[in-house]
Specification:
The chain is an alpha/beta fold. The chain contains 14 helices and eleven strands. Helix 1 packs parallel to helix 3, helix 5 runs parallel beside helix 12 and helix 12 crosses helix 14. The structure holds pyridoxal-5'-phosphate. The site of pyridoxal-5'-phosphate has 15 residues, from helix 6.
Length: 465
């Protein structure tokens, strides 16, 4: 076998392979014929095993790219299908996926300047711009290149989980190892898990019967628990897309001198929309904010960020490794990248984000946000008017919870699993007010009202009477 061609150094070896990938994606998607492969886990695994065969054969197979990509596409959950609407799992924009290909080909590694000369600067520009979106400084139109040492900053992460972990780590470094995490029961599981991982005291979880964190209860809790405190609020809960009352929570934190983290992994995208950004009023009071553009930002995974109001907080990540950032190199002017992350080798995830922000602009991204929020509102209207369904509540972002009227929780769980195993729809589930609800998280801007009407018909036809 001749030495296989490399990806970089020109398009010639890559072009026919890209054609193969695109054809295989198309073939696999057509073979699936719906949002999810049919037959449930055993059947899907069996088909994949049959299509892929021996993953490490003695002799290589030049057709492997076609066969494996086709098999994966056939066996994928397709977030671009309007009936695939369970999770915060968005259909990536074509332009972002294309930029991600460039990231794979160029393969900059973000741990030292000599592996990522331009990518490191692009990361600085994008993180500053997104931190400025959160903290509102400098004013819009003043450019994104303010390099003031006091300007808000951000670190790129693999998503909401890593951002939340980093937020707790920074809080521990700023406040000490007895820092007490206080959050609502509506907070993402990665927050208490991070407290466990970082050896912090057992977190205090405040019940959230209304779905959001009540500032009065938070105030009372802060009075009874000894500090230092890190309060974590949520802007876009995983189950219902609700936003905690951020200004009131920020005021309580100020009174008690508690540090504030806001997990806006889902809701952060609202910042791009003129119509919806006021729902995030108060976010700029947070010491740290989780953003995640592989949710309401239409990026392929991974596209997380953690913003820090005080950029010095991120200095906690500083690390010296002579082969990457020797003191004499740094003194001679080579940028020191190692302290931007807990990881060492790191993909330039910022490339697809930069291309997306610049291609669509704030207006284009805001329009996508508006579209999915509109669709959710229309879907809620449809449910509200439907005699055979119960709507949980009007959507705050793009999540709608509903249940067939008179169905039991067991019926609802079985309906969801039946739709999954027939591959006809992917709905999530959420337990709230003591009952089980079907969850739709609408993140596909191409979804039409007709698609949602068809989804309801499908659920209606599947639920036992
Ligand atoms: C509110 C919230 N925070 C954090 C996360 C974790 O994000 P990721 O899956 O990107 O780690 C999620 C995931 O859905 C989430 O809903």
């Amino acid at each position: 076998m001749t030495t296989p061609p490399l990806a970089s150094g020109g398009s010639d070896p890559l072009r026919p392979l890209l054609d193969t990938v695109l054809e295989a994606l198309g073939e696999g998607t057509r073979a699936r014929g719906g949002p999810l492969p049919r037959g449930g886990p055993e059947a899907v695994a069996e088909r994949l095993r049959a299509a892929v065969g021996d993953v490490l054969p003695e002799e290589g197979d030049p057709e492997a790219l076609r066969h494996v990509v086709r098999a994966l596409a056939e066996g994928s959950a397709d977030p671009a299908d309007p009936l695939c609407a369970a999770h915060l799992h968005c259909p990536p924009l074509a332009v972002a996926a294309a930029a991600d290909l460039a990231a794979s080909v160029l393969n900059p590694s973000m741990d030292s300047w000599d592996q990522a000369p331009a990518a490191s600067e692009l990361e600085s520009m994008v993180t500053r711009a997104l931190a400025n979106e959160v903290y509102g400084d400098p004013p819009r139109g003043a450019g994104n290149c303010a390099t003031s040492p006091n300007a808000p900053a951000a670190a790129v992460t693999t998503g909401g989980t890593e951002s939340n972990q980093l937020a707790l780590l920074l809080a521990r470094e700023m406040l000490g190892p007895t820092t007490h995490l206080i959050c609502g029961a509506n907070a993402h599981h990665s927050l208490p898990r991070s407290a466990w991982l970082l050896g912090l005291p057992t977190p205090l979880i405040i019940p959230t019967p209304t779905g959001t964190l009540d500032p009065t209860t938070l105030d009372a809790t802060l009075k009874t628990i000894s500090g230092p405190h890190l309060v974590a609020a949520t802007a876009g809960t995983t189950d219902a897309g609700l936003i905690d009352p951020l200004p009131e929570i920020a005021a309580v934190c100020k009174t008690h001198r508690a540090r504030l983290h806001i997990d806006a992994a889902y809701g952060g995208g609202l910042l791009f929309s003129e119509r919806h950004q006021s729902k995030l009023t108060g976010i700029s009071a947070a010491d740290t904010v989780t953003l995640d553009l592989h949710k309401l930002g239409w990026q392929p995974v991974a596209a997380g960020l953690l913003t820090a109001k005080a950029p010095q907080d991120l200095a906690a990540l500083h690390q010296r490794a002579d082969y990457l950032n020797a003191d004499d190199d740094t003194e001679a002017g080579l940028p020191d990248l190692l302290g931007r992350s807990l990881r060492t080798s790191r993909r330039p995830d910022v490339l697809k984000i930069a291309v997306t922000l610049k291609t669509l602009g704030r207006t284009g991204l805001g329009a996508l946000v508006d579209q999915v929020c509109d669709r959710a509102r229309e879907f809620a209207d449809l449910l509200d008017a439907h005699p055979r369904f119960e709507l949980y509540d009007r959507p705050t972002i793009s999540t709608v919870l509903f249940r067939p009227a008179h169905a039991t929780d067991d019926d609802i769980a079985a309906t969801r699993r039946h739709l999954l195993s027939t591959g006809r729809a992917v709905l999530g589930r959420a337990r709230t007010d003591g009952r089980l609800w079907l969850k739709t998280t609408l993140l596909n801007p191409h979804t039409r009202p007709d698609d949602l009407a068809a989804l309801l018909k499908l659920v209606e036809g599947t639920t036992p009477r």
